[in-house]
Design brief:
Rossmann fold, four-stranded parallel sheet, 9 helices, binds phosphoric acid mono(formamide)ester
């Protein structure tokens, strides 16, 4: 399988076999990600980390991934300090960055911006989130987490909860889980339901999808994937205030849960998971955060052709 020179824009750019291969490479990266083994696999390479929108996990885990593999990092996380402030276009910013680096990771508020950047760049572009569009590396680390925690992706019933309308991570994840034949429950306020086209696509792929605005039947769920209601994506602040705080996972919610249910969240959280859940055996979200490092190590090494 050859990933050299490929862009990573959407999870849909990858087949099930390719996804499984990325996860296999990521598993081998775990001891290096943990700092237990040293590597200079990418010591000749520079990654540009261009973050036009706030991020904690995606940016830091990409930078950690590159550094753990001996590579170097340039970039910005405050576009206001760059020539974008003087009116420089995305195309010119990308053309400039690519002349200094071997791979570009970018996050941008506009949907489609990563695909656009890939048209201008000759180095691989990895999408770290483009508005309400795609977040493929989050999707890969979510799949990796399910596989590590539960032993397989396939044999689980998964509930996606919260903002299913604007949440880019859940759109990609629903598609990927359908690719693996996983039945799903979509739980959201009526205003924030999963877009119809995502639901139809999953059903056409042959999986059973249940839609609800109530989080019940926890005794039938193996993975509870909770998302934040994203204030910044709402065009109308009143619409946000009507749905804010719709779901809160706390010890009481988990009373009827399966013993081995895991709670995942792409983070950041606001109030949708109570901190009292953090110490329970169900909380997988900080291990999920760590998993971003080996998965991103695998992706960078693959697109740079250093792992075949
Ligand atoms: N999950 C995620 O994308 O987190 P950040 O916004 O902090 O990068």
């Amino acid at each position: 399988m050859n990933f050299e020179g490929r862009d990573v824009i959407s999870i849909k750019d990858f087949s099930k076999e390719e996804i499984l291969y990325i996860l296999e490479v990521a598993q081998k990266m775990v001891p290096i990600a943990e700092g237990k083994e040293k590597s200079d696999l990418l010591s000749n390479y520079i990654m540009a980390s261009l973050f036009f929108e706030p991020s904690t996990r995606t940016r830091l885990s990409f930078e950690t991934a590159m550094k753990r593999l001996g590579g170097m990092v340039i970039g910005f996380s405050q576009p206001g300090t760059t020539s974008i402030q003087k009116g420089e276009t995305l195309a010119d910013t990308i053309r400039t960055a690519e002349s200094y680096c071997d791979v570009i990771v970018m996050r941008h508020p506009n949907e489609g911006s990563a695909r656009l950047a890939a048209e201008f760049a000759s180095v691989p572009i990895i999408n770290g989130g483009d508005g309400a569009g795609h977040h493929p590396t989050q999707c890969l680390l979510d799949l990796f987490t399910i596989k590590r925690e539960k032993g397989s992706i396939e044999k689980n019933r998964i509930a996606l909860v919260g903002d299913l309308k604007y949440g880019r991570t859940v759109h990609s994840l629903a598609y990927a889980l359908a690719l693996f034949g996983v039945d799903m429950m979509f739980v959201s306020p009526p205003e924030l339901q999963m877009p119809k086209e995502v639901v139809e696509e999953c059903r056409e792929m042959g999986v059973d999808v249940t839609i609800s605005n109530k989080l019940d039947n926890l005794d039938e769920i193996d993975v509870l994937y909770v998302t934040r209601i994203q204030k910044e994506r709402f065009p109308d602040p009143e619409e946000y205030s009507r749905v804010a705080g719709s779901y809160r996972i706390d010890l009481k919610t988990l009373e009827n849960a399966k013993e081995d249910l895991i709670v995942m969240h792409p983070l950041p959280r606001v109030d949708e998971i109570s901190s009292e859940v953090d110490k329970t055996k169900h909380a997988a979200y900080f291990r999920q955060t760590f998993n971003g490092v080996p998965v991103r190590m695998a992706l960078i090494a693959l697109v740079l052709g250093e792992v075949k």
